[in-house]
Amino acid sequence: MTITGNLLLNLYSIVILFVIGVHQSRIRHMTDPGDRLYYAIIRINMVMLVADILGRLDGTAHPLYPVLNSTGNFLTYLLNPVMPIIWFLYVHYQIKPSSLHLKRLARPFLLFQAVFMLVVIANLLTGWFYSIDSSNIYRRGPLFIIPVLIPLLILLIASGVIVVNRKSLQPGLAGPMLLFILPPVAGIILQAIFYGYSLILIGSTLSILIVFLHVQKKAIHTDYLTGVNNRLRLQFSLQDRISDSDEDQSFSAILLDVDNFKQINDRFGHPVGDMALRDAADLLRQCVRPRDFVARYGGDEFFLILDVRDAAGLERIVERIRQKLTDFNRSGDRVYDLGFSMGYAVYDPASGMDVKTYQQMLDQRMYEDKESRRAAARPMETKTKKEPLISCL
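RE: above sequence
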C-alpha cells in the first residue's frame, strides 16, 4: 500500500478516536478508573497512529524524512505492548472494580515496560527488531516477531480471563469484550504476512469502537445510580415477554417497594438513601439468575422479570429475597435495615393483560402487602416502646 493510502486510513482512524474521546470526556467525569483506562487506550492508539504515519516515510530523499522515520518506528515498537497492557488492566477492573487491586496488578507491567524500553533502545544499535539503513529504508530484524507476539499474547490472556470470569462481569459485557481482540489480532497476523500495510492499529480502532457502542447502548438502558436496567428497558422487555407468552411459555414478575425509604432520607440524608437503593439492587441481583431481569421501576421501586412459569417456583424466589433481607439486616453493616413490600404473579397468557394492566395488578398486590405488613407491625409497636427499626427496602 502507498504512503498516501496508509496516511488516509490512519487519519480516518484518528478522527474516529478523537470523536469517541471527546464524547467520553464530556459525558463522564473520568473519576472512575475503568473510564480512565478506556480513555488511555484511545489516546495511546491515537499516538501510535501518528507514529505509524511517521514510520511510513521511508525511501525518500528529503533530509527531514529519515528523522521522522526513525522517530515513528522507535515509538511504534516502544508503545507496542502498552495498549494490550491497559486493556488487560481494564478487563480486570471490570471483573473486580478495586483501585488497590488495579495498582498491584499494574506494577509488574510497569516493570516489564521499563525493561522492554531498554531492549528497544538497544535495538538502535543491534537491529534485533528493525533497522533503517543509510537510504532511509526500513528493514525487519531477525527477532521482529517478538514485538508482534508480545501484544498478541497479552490480548489472548486477557480474553482467557474474560472467559473464566464471565459470570463476574455485568450481563451482556463478556461478548463485546471478547470481540475486542479479534480486529487487532487479525491485523497482527495480516500485517506480519503482508509487509507495508497498516492494519494493526486500524483493527484496534475498530475494537475501541465496538466497546464504545456497547457502553453507549448500556448507558441508554441502565439506571445510573444502581447499575440495574432502567424503566425504558423494562417496558421493552416486559412487552416482549408478554408478546411471546402462550400456554406453553410464560413468566413471572415481582414489583417491590422499599419500605420507609423516606425515613432513610430524612434521618440519614440522601447519600445514605442512595446507598440503600444500591444495596437493594445488589441484593435483588443476588437472588435471581443471570438470565432474569432486574430494573429500577422508579424512585424506591424495583421490578423483576423472572423465567418462572409456576406459582411454587415464584414463591421460592420471594422467600429467597426475604431470607437475604434477614441476613443483610443481621449483619449490622449499615445504619438502616432493609425490607420489601412485594406484589408478584405468574403471567397468565389467557388473561390477555397488556403491560399496563399487568403492572397495575402487581402494584395493587404490592400495596396490599404493604398494608398487611403495617397492620402486623402496629401491635408490636404498641407493645414495645423501642424506636422501630428503619426498613430501607
